[in-house]
């Protein structure tokens, strides 16, 4: 398992602060639900994948943070969004393509 820790977003203000702080840096937003067994299986794989990259991972529970999920147009879980320079550069929902995530990580962290 990865030594890297994910940030758990608990408020809209915390989310907005993270997005402002990381505006120029890549960040992964992991939208999930406590009742989603697929979410529980995908998250450890994602954390192992990002272990070698300088990237922040923020975990967002859609049941608790419905407004953030709605503003991010997240309608299914798990959903992984990668943001870079204030823009969405990757969206993976439900059936996650880890190879695609890794390619995008390579692009976003190579600068």
From TrEMBL:
Boundaries of every Thioredoxin domain copy: 8-89
UniProt record, GO biological process: cell redox homeostasis
UniProt xrefs under SUPFAM superfamilies: Thioredoxin-like (SSF52833)
Pfam families the record matches: Thioredoxin (PF00085)
UniProt superkingdom: Bacteria
Protein name, per record: Thioredoxin
Organism listed in the record: Desulfitobacterium metallireducens DSM 15288
């Amino acid at each position: 398992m990865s030594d890297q820790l994910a940030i758990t977003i608990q408020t809209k203000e915390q989310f907005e602060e993270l997005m402002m702080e990381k505006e120029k840096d890549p960040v992964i937003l992991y939208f999930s639900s406590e009742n989603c067994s697929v979410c529980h299986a995908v998250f450890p794989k994602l954390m192992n994948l990002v272990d070698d990259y300088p990237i922040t991972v923020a975990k967002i529970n859609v049941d608790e943070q419905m407004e953030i999920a709605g503003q991010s147009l997240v309608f299914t879980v798990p959903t992984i969004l990668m943001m870079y320079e204030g823009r969405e550069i990757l969206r993976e929902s439900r059936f996650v393509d880890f190879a695609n995530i890794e390619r995008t990580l390579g692009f976003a962290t190579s600068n």
